[in-house]
Protein backbone atom coordinates (compact mmCIF):
# COMPACT_ATOMS: atom_id res chain seq x y z
CA UNK A 1 0.00 0.00 0.00
CA UNK A 2 1.39 3.45 -0.89
CA UNK A 3 1.39 6.43 1.44
CA UNK A 4 -1.18 8.09 -0.80
CA UNK A 5 -3.55 5.17 -0.43
CA UNK A 6 -3.16 5.21 3.33
CA UNK A 7 -3.84 8.91 3.50
CA UNK A 8 -6.99 8.51 1.44
CA UNK A 9 -8.26 5.75 3.73
CA UNK A 10 -7.52 7.81 6.84
CA UNK A 11 -9.37 10.75 5.36
CA UNK A 12 -12.37 8.60 4.46
CA UNK A 13 -12.48 7.17 7.98
CA UNK A 14 -12.30 10.60 9.51
CA UNK A 15 -15.09 11.81 7.23
CA UNK A 16 -17.31 8.89 8.24
CA UNK A 17 -16.68 9.57 11.92
CA UNK A 18 -17.52 13.21 11.44
CA UNK A 19 -20.78 12.37 9.70
CA UNK A 20 -21.72 9.92 12.48
CA UNK A 21 -20.99 12.53 15.12
CA UNK A 22 -23.10 15.08 13.24
CA UNK A 23 -25.99 12.64 12.97
CA UNK A 24 -25.79 11.86 16.68
CA UNK A 25 -25.75 15.55 17.52
CA UNK A 26 -28.76 16.18 15.30
CA UNK A 27 -30.66 13.32 16.93
CA UNK A 28 -29.88 14.69 20.36
CA UNK A 29 -31.04 18.13 19.28
CA UNK A 30 -34.28 16.72 17.90
CA UNK A 31 -34.92 14.82 21.12
CA UNK A 32 -34.25 17.91 23.18
CA UNK A 33 -36.58 19.98 21.01
CA UNK A 34 -39.31 17.34 21.28
CA UNK A 35 -38.96 17.32 25.09
CA UNK A 36 -39.09 21.12 25.12
CA UNK A 37 -42.22 21.18 22.95
CA UNK A 38 -43.92 18.59 25.14
CA UNK A 39 -43.05 20.52 28.32
CA UNK A 40 -44.32 23.75 26.75
CA UNK A 41 -47.61 22.07 25.75
CA UNK A 42 -48.12 20.74 29.24
CA UNK A 43 -47.37 24.13 30.79
CA UNK A 44 -49.79 25.87 28.41
CA UNK A 45 -52.48 23.27 29.15
CA UNK A 46 -51.99 23.72 32.90
CA UNK A 47 -52.13 27.51 32.58
CA UNK A 48 -55.27 27.33 30.48
CA UNK A 49 -56.90 25.07 33.03
CA UNK A 50 -56.11 27.52 35.86
CA UNK A 51 -57.33 30.50 33.86
CA UNK A 52 -60.53 28.91 32.53
CA UNK A 53 -61.78 26.06 34.72
CA UNK A 54 -63.86 23.47 32.96
CA UNK A 55 -67.61 24.00 33.27
CA UNK A 56 -69.67 21.46 35.11
CA UNK A 57 -71.54 18.93 32.97
CA UNK A 58 -70.49 17.00 29.84
CA UNK A 59 -67.90 18.41 27.49
CA UNK A 60 -66.20 17.33 24.28
CA UNK A 61 -63.22 15.02 24.73
CA UNK A 62 -59.91 16.80 24.83
CA UNK A 63 -56.70 15.76 23.18
CA UNK A 64 -55.06 13.07 25.35
CA UNK A 65 -51.95 14.02 27.22
CA UNK A 66 -49.29 11.34 27.29
CA UNK A 67 -48.97 9.68 30.68
CA UNK A 68 -47.64 6.30 29.54
CA UNK A 69 -44.93 4.94 27.27
CA UNK A 70 -46.21 6.83 24.19
CA UNK A 71 -45.68 10.49 23.46
CA UNK A 72 -48.55 12.75 22.39
CA UNK A 73 -47.38 12.42 18.81
CA UNK A 74 -47.41 8.64 19.02
CA UNK A 75 -50.92 8.68 20.54
CA UNK A 76 -52.12 10.82 17.65
CA UNK A 77 -50.44 8.44 15.21
CA UNK A 78 -52.40 5.55 16.74
CA UNK A 79 -55.62 7.59 16.57
CA UNK A 80 -55.10 8.35 12.90
CA UNK A 81 -53.81 4.87 12.10
CA UNK A 82 -57.05 3.22 13.22
CA UNK A 83 -59.46 5.84 11.88
CA UNK A 84 -60.96 3.84 9.01
CA UNK A 85 -63.74 5.03 6.73
CA UNK A 86 -65.45 1.69 6.14
CA UNK A 87 -67.06 -0.81 8.48
CA UNK A 88 -64.69 -2.14 11.13
CA UNK A 89 -64.54 -4.57 14.04
CA UNK A 90 -63.87 -2.82 17.35
CA UNK A 91 -60.96 -4.26 19.31
CA UNK A 92 -60.81 -1.87 22.25
CA UNK A 93 -59.22 1.36 23.42
CA UNK A 94 -55.58 2.46 23.48
CA UNK A 95 -53.85 2.19 26.85
CA UNK A 96 -51.26 4.84 27.64
CA UNK A 97 -50.99 4.75 31.38
CA UNK A 98 -54.79 4.62 31.43
CA UNK A 99 -57.31 3.61 28.78
CA UNK A 100 -58.07 6.42 26.31
CA UNK A 101 -61.71 5.90 25.37
CA UNK A 102 -61.48 8.32 22.44
CA UNK A 103 -58.60 6.41 20.79
CA UNK A 104 -60.24 3.25 19.45
CA UNK A 105 -58.33 0.31 17.99
CA UNK A 106 -60.17 -1.44 15.15
CA UNK A 107 -59.77 -3.87 12.24
CA UNK A 108 -61.30 -3.02 8.83
CA UNK A 109 -63.98 -5.63 8.17
CA UNK A 110 -62.63 -6.27 4.67
CA UNK A 111 -59.16 -7.01 6.09
CA UNK A 112 -60.40 -9.80 8.34
CA UNK A 113 -60.01 -12.06 5.29
CA UNK A 114 -56.27 -11.31 5.38
CA UNK A 115 -56.10 -13.65 8.40
CA UNK A 116 -54.73 -13.07 11.86
CA UNK A 117 -53.12 -14.40 15.02
CA UNK A 118 -54.34 -14.30 18.61
CA UNK A 119 -51.56 -15.38 20.97
CA UNK A 120 -50.84 -15.32 24.66
CA UNK A 121 -50.17 -17.42 27.72
CA UNK A 122 -52.92 -19.44 29.37
CA UNK A 123 -55.35 -17.29 31.35
CA UNK A 124 -54.52 -13.97 29.66
CA UNK A 125 -57.87 -13.50 27.88
CA UNK A 126 -57.44 -15.14 24.46
CA UNK A 127 -60.78 -16.93 24.63
CA UNK A 128 -62.70 -13.76 25.54
CA UNK A 129 -60.95 -11.90 22.73
CA UNK A 130 -62.03 -14.67 20.36
CA UNK A 131 -65.61 -14.48 21.68
CA UNK A 132 -65.71 -10.69 21.29
CA UNK A 133 -64.47 -10.89 17.70
CA UNK A 134 -66.97 -13.64 16.88
CA UNK A 135 -69.86 -11.60 18.31
CA UNK A 136 -69.01 -8.51 16.29
CA UNK A 137 -68.54 -10.51 13.11
CA UNK A 138 -71.93 -12.16 13.63
CA UNK A 139 -73.53 -8.75 14.18
CA UNK A 140 -71.96 -7.59 10.91
CA UNK A 141 -73.54 -10.49 9.01
CA UNK A 142 -70.41 -12.66 8.83
CA UNK A 143 -70.74 -16.39 9.74
CA UNK A 144 -68.14 -17.73 12.16
CA UNK A 145 -66.73 -21.21 12.79
CA UNK A 146 -64.77 -21.87 15.99
CA UNK A 147 -63.66 -24.89 17.98
CA UNK A 148 -64.86 -24.69 21.58
CA UNK A 149 -61.98 -26.47 23.28
CA UNK A 150 -62.93 -25.79 26.88
CA UNK A 151 -66.66 -25.16 26.46
CA UNK A 152 -66.25 -21.47 27.33
CA UNK A 153 -67.38 -20.15 23.94
CA UNK A 154 -70.86 -21.63 24.26
CA UNK A 155 -71.78 -18.57 26.33
CA UNK A 156 -72.01 -16.61 23.08
CA UNK A 157 -75.54 -18.05 22.69
CA UNK A 158 -76.65 -16.58 26.03
CA UNK A 159 -76.95 -12.89 26.89
CA UNK A 160 -74.29 -11.71 29.34
CA UNK A 161 -75.01 -10.56 32.87
CA UNK A 162 -74.02 -6.99 33.83
CA UNK A 163 -72.00 -6.23 36.93
CA UNK A 164 -70.49 -3.11 38.46
CA UNK A 165 -66.97 -4.21 37.57
CA UNK A 166 -67.95 -5.02 33.99
CA UNK A 167 -69.78 -1.75 33.46
CA UNK A 168 -66.89 0.25 34.89
CA UNK A 169 -64.48 -1.46 32.52
CA UNK A 170 -66.64 -1.04 29.45
CA UNK A 171 -67.33 2.64 30.16
CA UNK A 172 -63.62 3.20 30.59
CA UNK A 173 -62.89 2.01 27.04
CA UNK A 174 -65.89 3.68 25.43
CA UNK A 175 -67.85 0.47 24.88
CA UNK A 176 -71.63 0.72 24.82
CA UNK A 177 -72.12 -2.68 26.43
CA UNK A 178 -75.50 -4.39 26.18
CA UNK A 179 -76.23 -8.04 27.01
CA UNK A 180 -76.81 -9.86 23.72
CA UNK A 181 -77.20 -13.48 22.63
CA UNK A 182 -76.03 -14.50 19.18
CA UNK A 183 -77.38 -17.20 16.80
CA UNK A 184 -75.41 -20.37 17.43
CA UNK A 185 -75.18 -23.92 16.07
CA UNK A 186 -73.44 -26.69 18.00
CA UNK A 187 -71.45 -29.43 16.26
CA UNK A 188 -69.48 -32.46 17.42
CA UNK A 189 -67.00 -34.83 15.78
CA UNK A 190 -69.02 -37.89 14.79
CA UNK A 191 -71.62 -37.24 17.48
CA UNK A 192 -69.27 -37.43 20.48
CA UNK A 193 -70.83 -34.74 22.64
CA UNK A 194 -73.67 -32.26 22.31
CA UNK A 195 -74.21 -31.09 18.77
CA UNK A 196 -74.99 -32.01 15.19
CA UNK A 197 -72.57 -34.80 14.15
CA UNK A 198 -69.85 -33.85 11.68
CA UNK A 199 -68.53 -36.68 9.54
CA UNK A 200 -66.24 -36.95 6.54
CA UNK A 201 -65.45 -39.82 4.21
CA UNK A 202 -61.99 -41.29 4.03
CA UNK A 203 -61.90 -40.48 0.30
CA UNK A 204 -62.55 -36.77 0.84
CA UNK A 205 -60.15 -36.66 3.79
CA UNK A 206 -57.34 -37.83 1.52
CA UNK A 207 -54.00 -39.55 2.13
CA UNK A 208 -52.05 -36.43 3.11
CA UNK A 209 -54.29 -35.44 6.02
CA UNK A 210 -54.79 -39.05 7.08
CA UNK A 211 -51.03 -39.60 7.14
CA UNK A 212 -50.73 -36.63 9.48
CA UNK A 213 -53.39 -38.09 11.77
CA UNK A 214 -51.74 -41.52 11.80
CA UNK A 215 -48.21 -40.16 12.24
CA UNK A 216 -46.85 -41.88 9.13
CA UNK A 217 -43.42 -41.14 7.68
CA UNK A 218 -42.89 -40.01 4.09
CA UNK A 219 -42.49 -43.56 2.72
CA UNK A 220 -45.65 -44.75 4.42
CA UNK A 221 -47.46 -41.61 3.32
CA UNK A 222 -46.47 -42.31 -0.29
CA UNK A 223 -47.71 -45.90 -0.01
CA UNK A 224 -51.02 -44.70 1.43
CA UNK A 225 -51.37 -42.35 -1.53
CA UNK A 226 -50.92 -45.33 -3.84
CA UNK A 227 -53.73 -47.16 -2.05
CA UNK A 228 -56.05 -44.18 -2.49
CA UNK A 229 -55.12 -44.05 -6.18
CA UNK A 230 -55.96 -47.73 -6.59
CA UNK A 231 -59.31 -47.40 -4.80
CA UNK A 232 -60.27 -44.41 -6.95
CA UNK A 233 -59.29 -46.13 -10.22
CA UNK A 234 -61.23 -49.27 -9.25
CA UNK A 235 -64.35 -47.40 -8.20
CA UNK A 236 -64.03 -48.46 -4.56
CA UNK A 237 -65.52 -45.74 -2.30
CA UNK A 238 -63.55 -45.29 0.92
CA UNK A 239 -66.22 -44.21 3.38
CA UNK A 240 -64.85 -45.26 6.76
CA UNK A 241 -61.78 -46.86 8.31
CA UNK A 242 -63.06 -50.39 7.69
CA UNK A 243 -63.11 -49.66 3.95
CA UNK A 244 -59.48 -48.60 4.00
CA UNK A 245 -58.48 -51.64 6.05
CA UNK A 246 -60.32 -53.89 3.58
CA UNK A 247 -58.47 -52.40 0.60
CA UNK A 248 -55.11 -52.76 2.35
CA UNK A 249 -55.83 -56.37 3.27
CA UNK A 250 -57.01 -57.16 -0.25
CA UNK A 251 -53.86 -55.72 -1.81
CA UNK A 252 -51.82 -58.06 0.39
CA UNK A 253 -53.93 -61.14 -0.36
CA UNK A 254 -53.19 -63.71 -3.06
CA UNK A 255 -56.05 -62.29 -5.12
CA UNK A 256 -54.92 -58.66 -4.97
CA UNK A 257 -51.17 -58.51 -4.44
CA UNK A 258 -50.54 -58.33 -8.18
CA UNK A 259 -52.86 -55.33 -8.67
CA UNK A 260 -50.20 -52.70 -7.94
CA UNK A 261 -47.22 -54.55 -9.42
CA UNK A 262 -46.97 -52.08 -12.31
CA UNK A 263 -46.90 -49.16 -9.85
CA UNK A 264 -44.19 -50.61 -7.64
CA UNK A 265 -46.41 -52.57 -5.28
CA UNK A 266 -46.73 -52.27 -1.51
CA UNK A 267 -44.16 -53.50 0.97
CA UNK A 268 -45.78 -55.89 3.46
CA UNK A 269 -43.99 -54.12 6.32
CA UNK A 270 -45.45 -50.75 5.28
CA UNK A 271 -48.93 -52.18 5.00
CA UNK A 272 -48.50 -53.74 8.44
CA UNK A 273 -47.58 -50.37 9.97
CA UNK A 274 -50.55 -48.61 8.38
CA UNK A 275 -52.97 -51.33 9.47
CA UNK A 276 -51.68 -51.21 13.05
CA UNK A 277 -52.02 -47.41 13.15
CA UNK A 278 -55.55 -47.63 11.77
CA UNK A 279 -56.52 -50.13 14.46
CA UNK A 280 -55.05 -47.93 17.20
CA UNK A 281 -56.76 -44.90 15.71
CA UNK A 282 -60.12 -46.70 15.71
CA UNK A 283 -59.61 -47.92 19.29
CA UNK A 284 -59.27 -44.29 20.38
CA UNK A 285 -62.83 -43.72 19.18
CA UNK A 286 -61.82 -41.68 16.16
CA UNK A 287 -63.54 -43.98 13.70
CA UNK A 288 -66.93 -42.40 14.51
CA UNK A 289 -65.85 -39.28 12.65
CA UNK A 290 -65.44 -41.09 9.33
CA UNK A 291 -68.62 -42.02 7.53
CA UNK A 292 -71.75 -40.67 5.95
CA UNK A 293 -73.67 -38.45 5.67
CA UNK A 294 -70.68 -36.19 5.09
CA UNK A 295 -71.03 -32.59 6.26
CA UNK A 296 -71.54 -29.96 3.57
CA UNK A 297 -69.21 -27.13 4.55
CA UNK A 298 -71.60 -24.68 2.88
CA UNK A 299 -73.79 -25.13 5.98
CA UNK A 300 -71.23 -23.10 7.92
CA UNK A 301 -71.90 -20.04 5.72
CA UNK A 302 -75.51 -19.54 6.77
CA UNK A 303 -77.15 -16.37 8.10
CA UNK A 304 -79.89 -16.16 10.72
CA UNK A 305 -83.33 -14.79 9.83
CA UNK A 306 -82.33 -11.37 11.19
CA UNK A 307 -79.28 -11.18 8.90
CA UNK A 308 -76.68 -11.94 11.56
CA UNK A 309 -74.04 -14.55 10.86
CA UNK A 310 -74.54 -17.92 12.55
CA UNK A 311 -71.73 -18.89 14.93
CA UNK A 312 -70.87 -22.58 14.47
CA UNK A 313 -69.19 -24.02 17.57
CA UNK A 314 -67.43 -27.37 17.43
CA UNK A 315 -67.42 -29.15 20.77
CA UNK A 316 -64.21 -31.12 21.17
CA UNK A 317 -64.31 -33.15 24.39
CA UNK A 318 -61.03 -34.77 25.32
CA UNK A 319 -59.03 -33.00 22.63
CA UNK A 320 -55.88 -33.91 24.56
CA UNK A 321 -56.56 -37.57 23.74
CA UNK A 322 -56.99 -36.95 20.00
CA UNK A 323 -55.07 -33.77 19.19
CA UNK A 324 -54.04 -34.89 15.71
CA UNK A 325 -57.62 -35.75 14.72
CA UNK A 326 -58.95 -32.43 16.01
CA UNK A 327 -56.39 -30.23 14.30
CA UNK A 328 -56.33 -32.22 11.09
CA UNK A 329 -60.11 -32.21 10.89
CA UNK A 330 -60.12 -28.42 11.02
CA UNK A 331 -57.55 -28.41 8.24
CA UNK A 332 -59.84 -30.69 6.22
CA UNK A 333 -62.67 -28.21 6.65
CA UNK A 334 -60.50 -25.41 5.28
CA UNK A 335 -59.34 -27.52 2.34
CA UNK A 336 -62.93 -28.50 1.56
CA UNK A 337 -64.05 -24.87 1.69
CA UNK A 338 -61.24 -23.85 -0.62
CA UNK A 339 -62.22 -26.53 -3.14
CA UNK A 340 -65.93 -25.67 -3.09
CA UNK A 341 -66.05 -21.87 -2.86
CA UNK A 342 -65.71 -19.68 -5.96
CA UNK A 343 -63.07 -16.99 -6.37
CA UNK A 344 -64.29 -13.61 -5.14
CA UNK A 345 -61.09 -11.59 -4.68
CA UNK A 346 -61.14 -8.69 -2.20
CA UNK A 347 -64.64 -8.12 -0.81
CA UNK A 348 -66.15 -5.71 1.70
CA UNK A 349 -66.62 -8.42 4.32
CA UNK A 350 -65.64 -12.09 4.54
CA UNK A 351 -67.99 -14.95 3.72
CA UNK A 352 -66.73 -16.84 6.76
CA UNK A 353 -64.18 -16.34 9.53
CA UNK A 354 -62.52 -19.45 10.90
CA UNK A 355 -60.97 -19.45 14.37
CA UNK A 356 -58.32 -22.17 14.62
CA UNK A 357 -57.84 -22.68 18.37
CA UNK A 358 -54.90 -24.69 19.77
CA UNK A 359 -53.14 -24.11 16.45
CA UNK A 360 -49.89 -25.62 17.70
CA UNK A 361 -51.53 -29.06 17.47
CA UNK A 362 -51.83 -28.65 13.72
CA UNK A 363 -48.16 -27.99 13.11
CA UNK A 364 -46.63 -30.42 15.62
CA UNK A 365 -44.63 -33.18 13.88
CA UNK A 366 -46.00 -32.16 10.49
CA UNK A 367 -44.23 -33.35 7.32
CA UNK A 368 -42.88 -30.92 4.74
CA UNK A 369 -45.69 -31.80 2.34
CA UNK A 370 -48.29 -31.20 5.03
CA UNK A 371 -46.82 -27.80 5.95
CA UNK A 372 -46.67 -26.88 2.27
CA UNK A 373 -50.35 -27.80 1.92
CA UNK A 374 -51.27 -25.63 4.94
CA UNK A 375 -49.29 -22.68 3.61
CA UNK A 376 -50.93 -22.97 0.21
CA UNK A 377 -54.40 -23.22 1.74
CA UNK A 378 -53.87 -20.13 3.91
CA UNK A 379 -52.51 -18.21 0.94
CA UNK A 380 -55.27 -19.13 -1.51
CA UNK A 381 -58.38 -19.27 0.67
CA UNK A 382 -58.30 -15.50 1.16
CA UNK A 383 -59.45 -15.06 -2.43
CA UNK A 384 -62.43 -17.32 -1.61
CA UNK A 385 -63.57 -14.84 1.05
CA UNK A 386 -62.55 -16.90 4.09
CA UNK A 387 -60.50 -15.41 6.91
CA UNK A 388 -58.49 -17.54 9.35
CA UNK A 389 -57.40 -16.58 12.85
CA UNK A 390 -54.88 -18.92 14.47
CA UNK A 391 -55.18 -18.98 18.27
CA UNK A 392 -52.19 -20.29 20.21
CA UNK A 393 -49.78 -19.45 23.03
CA UNK A 394 -46.79 -18.01 21.16
CA UNK A 395 -46.23 -16.94 17.56
CA UNK A 396 -43.39 -19.46 17.32
CA UNK A 397 -46.07 -22.19 17.34
CA UNK A 398 -46.93 -21.13 13.79
CA UNK A 399 -44.38 -21.75 10.99
CA UNK A 400 -42.80 -18.67 9.46
CA UNK A 401 -44.32 -19.25 6.01
CA UNK A 402 -47.79 -19.30 7.54
CA UNK A 403 -47.09 -16.43 9.94
CA UNK A 404 -46.06 -14.28 6.97
CA UNK A 405 -49.61 -14.61 5.57
CA UNK A 406 -51.29 -13.15 8.68
CA UNK A 407 -52.34 -9.51 8.50
CA UNK A 408 -53.63 -8.93 12.06
CA UNK A 409 -51.76 -9.60 15.30
CA UNK A 410 -53.29 -9.67 18.80
CA UNK A 411 -50.64 -10.52 21.37
CA UNK A 412 -51.75 -11.05 24.97
CA UNK A 413 -49.31 -11.37 27.85
CA UNK A 414 -46.30 -13.62 27.47
CA UNK A 415 -44.27 -14.90 30.39
CA UNK A 416 -40.54 -15.48 30.48
CA UNK A 417 -40.02 -17.88 33.35
CA UNK A 418 -37.68 -20.22 31.46
CA UNK A 419 -34.92 -19.78 28.86
CA UNK A 420 -37.30 -21.11 26.21
CA UNK A 421 -39.92 -18.55 27.28
CA UNK A 422 -37.35 -15.77 27.06
CA UNK A 423 -36.32 -16.89 23.59
CA UNK A 424 -39.95 -16.99 22.46
CA UNK A 425 -40.49 -13.50 23.86
CA UNK A 426 -37.50 -12.09 21.95
CA UNK A 427 -38.67 -13.75 18.74
CA UNK A 428 -42.16 -12.33 19.21
CA UNK A 429 -40.94 -8.79 19.84
CA UNK A 430 -38.75 -8.84 16.75
CA UNK A 431 -41.73 -9.49 14.47
CA UNK A 432 -43.55 -6.24 15.34
CA UNK A 433 -43.17 -2.90 13.55
CA UNK A 434 -40.92 -0.29 15.17
CA UNK A 435 -42.65 1.73 17.89
CA UNK A 436 -41.95 3.76 21.02
CA UNK A 437 -42.78 0.73 23.16
CA UNK A 438 -40.22 -1.41 24.88
CA UNK A 439 -42.20 -4.43 23.72
CA UNK A 440 -40.08 -6.90 25.66
CA UNK A 441 -41.21 -5.19 28.87
CA UNK A 442 -44.75 -4.28 27.81
CA UNK A 443 -45.73 -7.77 26.64
CA UNK A 444 -44.80 -9.18 30.05
CA UNK A 445 -46.70 -6.46 31.94
CA UNK A 446 -50.02 -6.68 30.06
CA UNK A 447 -53.03 -7.15 32.32
CA UNK A 448 -55.65 -9.82 31.68
CA UNK A 449 -57.79 -8.65 28.79
CA UNK A 450 -55.09 -6.41 27.33
CA UNK A 451 -53.04 -7.04 24.21
CA UNK A 452 -50.56 -5.54 21.79
CA UNK A 453 -52.37 -5.04 18.48
CA UNK A 454 -51.34 -4.25 14.92
CA UNK A 455 -53.52 -4.90 11.87
CA UNK A 456 -53.69 -4.09 8.17
CA UNK A 457 -55.35 -0.79 7.31
CA UNK A 458 -57.68 -0.37 4.34
CA UNK A 459 -54.71 0.02 2.02
CA UNK A 460 -52.98 -3.11 3.25
CA UNK A 461 -50.28 -1.31 5.28
CA UNK A 462 -49.61 -2.21 8.93
CA UNK A 463 -51.15 0.06 11.54
CA UNK A 464 -49.16 1.48 14.49
CA UNK A 465 -48.52 -0.91 17.37
CA UNK A 466 -51.15 -0.25 20.03
CA UNK A 467 -51.36 -1.37 23.65
CA UNK A 468 -55.08 -2.14 23.77
CA UNK A 469 -57.61 -2.87 26.48
CA UNK A 470 -59.90 -5.32 24.70
CA UNK A 471 -63.68 -5.02 24.54
CA UNK A 472 -65.77 -7.31 26.75
CA UNK A 473 -68.03 -9.92 25.13
CA UNK A 474 -71.76 -9.14 25.17
CA UNK A 475 -72.63 -12.80 25.53
CA UNK A 476 -72.26 -14.72 28.75
CA UNK A 477 -68.81 -15.19 30.22
CA UNK A 478 -69.97 -18.59 31.50
CA UNK A 479 -70.89 -21.61 29.35
CA UNK A 480 -74.48 -21.95 28.19
CA UNK A 481 -76.36 -24.54 30.31
CA UNK A 482 -76.33 -28.05 28.85
CA UNK A 483 -80.14 -28.22 28.68
CA UNK A 484 -80.28 -25.09 26.54
CA UNK A 485 -77.53 -26.42 24.26
CA UNK A 486 -79.43 -29.70 23.82
CA UNK A 487 -82.63 -27.82 23.01
CA UNK A 488 -80.78 -25.80 20.37
CA UNK A 489 -79.41 -28.99 18.79
CA UNK A 490 -82.85 -30.63 18.70
CA UNK A 491 -84.31 -27.56 17.01
CA UNK A 492 -81.55 -27.39 14.39
CA UNK A 493 -82.65 -27.97 10.78
CA UNK A 494 -79.34 -29.78 10.23
CA UNK A 495 -80.09 -32.58 12.68
CA UNK A 496 -82.43 -34.38 10.29
CA UNK A 497 -79.73 -34.37 7.61
CA UNK A 498 -76.72 -35.39 9.67
CA UNK A 499 -78.09 -36.86 12.88
CA UNK A 500 -78.14 -40.54 11.87
CA UNK A 501 -75.13 -42.34 10.37
CA UNK A 502 -75.65 -44.47 7.26
CA UNK A 503 -73.64 -47.40 5.96
CA UNK A 504 -73.69 -47.32 2.15
CA UNK A 505 -72.30 -49.90 -0.25
CA UNK A 506 -68.58 -49.17 -0.24
CA UNK A 507 -65.14 -50.72 -0.68
CA UNK A 508 -65.59 -53.20 2.18
CA UNK A 509 -68.76 -54.71 0.74
CA UNK A 510 -67.53 -54.56 -2.86
CA UNK A 511 -64.29 -56.34 -2.05
CA UNK A 512 -66.17 -58.91 0.04
CA UNK A 513 -68.34 -59.71 -2.97
CA UNK A 514 -65.29 -59.79 -5.21
CA UNK A 515 -63.56 -62.23 -2.87
CA UNK A 516 -66.71 -64.34 -2.59
CA UNK A 517 -67.01 -64.48 -6.37
CA UNK A 518 -63.33 -65.39 -6.66
CA UNK A 519 -63.75 -68.06 -4.00
CA UNK A 520 -66.82 -69.47 -5.76
CA UNK A 521 -64.98 -69.50 -9.09
CA UNK A 522 -62.02 -71.21 -7.46
CA UNK A 523 -64.33 -73.74 -5.79
CA UNK A 524 -66.02 -74.53 -9.10
CA UNK A 525 -62.67 -74.90 -10.82
CA UNK A 526 -61.45 -77.17 -8.03
CA UNK A 527 -64.63 -79.24 -8.19
CA UNK A 528 -64.34 -79.56 -11.95
CA UNK A 529 -60.72 -80.55 -11.61
CA UNK A 530 -61.58 -83.15 -8.98
CA UNK A 531 -64.41 -84.50 -11.13
CA UNK A 532 -62.10 -84.64 -14.13
CA UNK A 533 -59.49 -86.51 -12.12
CA UNK A 534 -62.10 -88.93 -10.77
CA UNK A 535 -63.49 -89.50 -14.23
CA UNK A 536 -60.02 -90.18 -15.60
CA UNK A 537 -59.30 -92.47 -12.68
CA UNK A 538 -62.60 -94.33 -13.21
CA UNK A 539 -61.96 -94.69 -16.93
CA UNK A 540 -58.50 -96.01 -16.21
CA UNK A 541 -59.88 -98.50 -13.71
CA UNK A 542 -62.62 -99.58 -16.10
CA UNK A 543 -60.08 -100.05 -18.87
CA UNK A 544 -57.89 -102.14 -16.59
CA UNK A 545 -60.87 -104.22 -15.49
CA UNK A 546 -61.91 -104.78 -19.08
CA UNK A 547 -58.44 -105.96 -19.92
CA UNK A 548 -58.58 -108.38 -17.02
CA UNK A 549 -61.98 -109.61 -18.15
CA UNK A 550 -60.74 -110.12 -21.67
CA UNK A 551 -57.65 -111.89 -20.40
CA UNK A 552 -59.70 -114.16 -18.15
CA UNK A 553 -62.08 -114.95 -20.95
CA UNK A 554 -59.21 -115.82 -23.24
CA UNK A 555 -57.71 -118.04 -20.54
CA UNK A 556 -60.91 -119.91 -19.95
CA UNK A 557 -61.51 -120.23 -23.66
CA UNK A 558 -58.07 -121.71 -24.15
CA UNK A 559 -58.62 -124.21 -21.40
CA UNK A 560 -61.74 -125.61 -23.13
CA UNK A 561 -60.21 -125.90 -26.60
CA UNK A 562 -59.51 -129.55 -27.85
CA UNK A 563 -56.33 -130.52 -29.53
CA UNK A 564 -55.99 -129.37 -33.07
CA UNK A 565 -56.88 -131.81 -35.88
CA UNK A 566 -56.80 -131.60 -39.60
CA UNK A 567 -60.52 -131.41 -39.85
CA UNK A 568 -62.13 -128.49 -41.47
CA UNK A 569 -63.57 -125.52 -39.65
CA UNK A 570 -67.07 -126.65 -40.07
CA UNK A 571 -66.14 -130.02 -38.63
CA UNK A 572 -64.50 -128.31 -35.60
CA UNK A 573 -67.53 -126.18 -35.05
CA UNK A 574 -69.78 -129.11 -35.25
CA UNK A 575 -67.62 -131.08 -32.81
CA UNK A 576 -67.55 -128.35 -30.02
CA UNK A 577 -68.47 -129.55 -26.63
CA UNK A 578 -71.54 -128.11 -24.90
CA UNK A 579 -69.36 -126.02 -22.48
CA UNK A 580 -67.50 -124.48 -25.42
CA UNK A 581 -70.73 -123.61 -27.13
CA UNK A 582 -72.09 -121.94 -23.97
CA UNK A 583 -68.91 -119.91 -23.35
CA UNK A 584 -68.86 -118.78 -26.94
CA UNK A 585 -72.41 -117.43 -26.81
CA UNK A 586 -73.03 -113.59 -26.32
CA UNK A 587 -75.07 -114.23 -23.19
CA UNK A 588 -72.19 -116.09 -21.57
CA UNK A 589 -69.80 -113.26 -22.38
CA UNK A 590 -72.17 -110.71 -20.82
CA UNK A 591 -72.61 -112.75 -17.65
CA UNK A 592 -68.88 -113.30 -17.36
CA UNK A 593 -68.21 -109.57 -17.77
CA UNK A 594 -70.68 -108.66 -15.03
CA UNK A 595 -69.15 -111.23 -12.70
CA UNK A 596 -65.67 -109.85 -13.25
CA UNK A 597 -66.82 -106.28 -12.78
CA UNK A 598 -68.33 -107.22 -9.50
CA UNK A 599 -65.10 -108.78 -8.46
CA UNK A 600 -63.08 -105.58 -9.26
CA UNK A 601 -65.61 -103.16 -7.83
CA UNK A 602 -66.72 -101.57 -11.11
CA UNK A 603 -70.33 -102.76 -11.21
CA UNK A 604 -72.84 -100.03 -11.91
CA UNK A 605 -75.26 -99.08 -9.19
CA UNK A 606 -78.88 -99.55 -10.17
From TrEMBL:
InterPro entries on file: HerA_C (IPR033186), P-loop_NTPase (IPR027417), T4SS_component (IPR051162)
Residue ranges with Basic and acidic residues bias: 531-557
Helicase HerA-like C-terminal domain: residues covered: 100-603
Low complexity: bias regions: 33-60, 558-578
Domain of life, per lineage: Bacteria
Spans annotated as Disordered: 33-68, 531-581
Name of the molecule in the record: Helicase HerA-like C-terminal domain-containing protein
Species this chain originates from: Agreia pratensis
Taxonomic lineage of the native organism: Bacteria, Bacillati, Actinomycetota, Actinomycetes, Micrococcales
